[in-house]
Amino acid sequence: MNFDDKTLRIIEILINSFLPLLKAGLQFTVPLALVSFTLGLILALGTALARISNFRPLVLLAKIYVSIIRGTPLIVQLFIIFYGLPAAGITLNALTAAIIGFTLSVGAYTSEVIRAAILSIPKGQWEAGYSVGMTYNQVLRRVIIPQATRVSIPPLANSFISLVKDTSLAATITVTEMFQIAQRITASTYEPLWMYIEVAFIYFIFCSVLSMIQSKMEKRLERYVTR
């Protein structure tokens, strides 16, 4: 098979750029997603518990937080944190700003997943815990949270996969993750179509691997579900 010079050049660019893109994905994109998701889950649990509490100011505060984050674009939130806060005397480096932005986003969206999972547990479970002398915190920690975790794992896994793709927005605030590396290579090679197809392919690989892990987790959890 014969290739013209342009085709050979494109193939060479794709081969030479694959490892730098993959390296950026493994060094920045995946860790950024993991750290943000972990912190976001902690925030989400606190927000979910605040939403179902009987303390009205706490309920209102949690509702306002969720409403603001869910009602505004993530890219705007990142710009406010990274480009806007310096006007108020708060300057953050790009990576820290990205982690804060993604954490707030994950916390708001997944708090609804966790809240729904907690509310899906029958009230009889609470009453059974109280009947054996457990406190509210003990029932929550020993009875409710373990059951709610099994319910929430599938949607939370989907949220994490979405976050991996959303980390590409960090390029807009100069974080040197995979998508920004692709932009830099594109600026020097002038082949945007093929470069962005290649970076999309790498994101697809990451998400496919995560989807397989999710499927295995769901199968393991099914063993503990009573039919």
Structural class estimated from helices and strands: mainly alpha
Query: Mind telling me which CATH architecture this is?
Result: Orthogonal Bundle
CATH level-four homologous superfamily name = MetI-like
Q: Overall 3D geometry?
A: elongated
In the CATH scheme, the class would be Mainly Alpha
* Helix-strand string: HHHHHHHH
Largest sheet: none
Itemize the secondary structure elements and their pairings.
Layout: H1 5-51, H2 56-70, H3 74-84, H4 94-119, H5 123-131, H6 136-166, H7 178-189, H8 192-222
Description of the structure:
- The chain is mainly alpha-helical and 227 residues long.
- It has a single domain, classed as MetI-like fold (Orthogonal Bundle), CATH 1.10.3720.
- It contains 8 helices and no strands.
- Helix 4 packs across helix 6 and helix 6 packs antiparallel against helix 8.
- The longest helix is centred in the first third of the chain and has 47 residues.
- The chain is elongated.
- It starts with a helix and ends in a 5-residue tail after the last helix.
